Amino acid sequence: MGNVKLKLSPPSEKQKLFLLSNAAYTAFGGARGGGKSWAVRTKALLLALKYAGIKIMIIRKTYPELRANHINEMCRICASIATYSETKKELIFLNGSSIKFSSCRNVRDLDKFQGTEADVVFIDEATQFSREMFDRIRACVRGVNNFPKRIYLTCNPGGVGHNWVKELFIDKSLENTDYVFIKSLVSDNKALIENDPEYIKKLEALPEKLRKAWLEGDWNIFEGQFFEEFRDDPNHYRDRCFTHVIEPFEIPRDWKIYRSFDFGYSKPFSCDWWAIDYDGRAYLILQLYGCTEANVGVKWSPDKIFAEIKRIENEHKWLAGKQILGVADPSIWDASRGEAIIESADRNLVYFQPGDNKRIPGWMQCHYRLSFDADGKPMVYFFNTCRHAIRTLPILNYSEHTPEDLDTTQEDHFADSFRYFCMSRPIKPSADTPCTPVDVDPLSTTDKRYSQFSY
Q: How far is residue 414's CA from residue 418's CA, in Å, rounded to a whole number?
């Protein structure tokens, strides 16, 4: 096989990065027309030729898609060095390597992967797969050999898997260096532009959200996004216009401080501190968020949670000596299954009032806060150090069953805390006059002692 030469078209610069990546998880794409199918075919073939005997699997939602996008072309390219088995749905090479093509339409189809082993797996159009499907599929990557163990994904914004792909590859908010994202736009695919110059015009003619997702590769805007007002634009951190995320600054001592809280044990808890300026504008300045990974809680006892909250409020310069007004989910007053969680808060001198738990009015208050006024300024800002708030808020979707409500199966713990806060200080849908935030200087240093928290 060492003398075998395949006739392949030259890669774009972005495709070349994908071909060279040896990370445990590599995602490629981000927009339509970025050359994803070519990248998958070429990478799989190169691995099959380099590692004699390696087992590779390419997964897509349906078998007709696999045939149209991969099987037909790969069989043509490899006619002299590999044989395709229609029964096994497998391309078998003379050197013992194999590429298996598997479809997976839904969770029920996962049963056919039971006991399957592969060294390298490609998940094509990964945002069409749920997080459960991804987790089950990646369990197939194993084997007692010296072959590389990797997963490659292609993806566009949108779809049922939008949130987990964005969390793992785009935001990298959980700081896992095993995940690499290579963004490729249609403008990077010179071959497509030359062969179909009208394709970009077709993308430009799409409705705004689809245009931003499919042409620009914008992961922050997609159909079904619950908080579609949310913007995180570093270019506007300084002037605070048309962005919700800003640099931290020194909080004036006479600003009121609020604390909102959503309890969690196996799921994350969220304790959030808000500063209110002279115009009633809110700033999320600190956050204690109990998670080990996305939507998985640290399993702290209530006493440990509230002891840590009290310690922060005693020691942090923005909170120490301040009267803090607390609001929390009314369920922590429930004593039907034993001691109410609020009793633990009281023991640790962390006081709350029951929050207004009306969901639809509460979400409307959140929308009112996030909306921009005539000057491009919202009624709520988030310090860019509150990373879990910034990570989770823009990826939440509408419920499929309850119009105007949030999908509660997602990581909505900060969103609930945000809702309790907003209901404690309700505002009108729009301000009568534009509001201008107080002009203060950003902090120049970060207190390392609080590095375990988002603040």
A: 6
Give the C-alpha separation, 28 to 14, whole Å. 9
- Does residue 224 fall inside a structural domain? no
Residue 104 and residue 177 share a domain: yes
The whole-model pTM stands at: 0.63
| Interatomic CA distance for residues 445 and 430, integer angstroms | 36
Q: Give the H/E segment covering residue 181.
A: strand 179-184
Residue 228 lies in a domain: no
Residue 177 confidence class, pLDDT cut points 50, 70, 90: low
**Pick from 178, 60, 42, 54: nearest CA to 119:** 54
* Segment 53-62 mean pLDDT: 96
Q: Is the residue at 33 inside a domain?
A: yes
Q: Which amino acid is at 192?
A: L
Going by C-alpha positions, the residue among 79, 74, 64, 124 that lies closest to residue 99 is: 74
**Can you tell me the distance from the alpha carbon of 135 to that of 114, in angstroms, rounded to the nearest whole number?**
13
184 and 264: one domain? Answer: no
357 within domain boundaries: yes
Is 77 in contact with 46 (CB distance < 8 Å)? no
Would you give the DSSP letter of residue 436?
-
- Say if residue 363 is exposed, middle or buried (CB neighbours under 10 Å; 0-12, 13-18, 19+): buried
Residues 29 and 144 occupy one common structural domain: yes
Separation between Cα atoms, residue 276 and residue 319, nearest integer Å: 13
What residues make up the domain containing 50? Answer: 13-214
**Greatest CA separation for the chain:** 78
CA angle 356, 293, 380 (to 5 degrees): 40
Res 207 pLDDT > 80 = no
Q: Single out the residue of 269, 183, 177, 248 nearest to residue 219, CA to CA.
A: 183
Distance from C-alpha of 161 to C-alpha of 113, rounded to nearest angstrom: 19
The single-letter code of the amino acid at 268 is: P
Whether the Cβ atoms of residue 30 and residue 157 lie closer than 8 Å to each other = yes
Domain count, the chain: 2
Mean pLDDT over 133-141 rounds to: 93
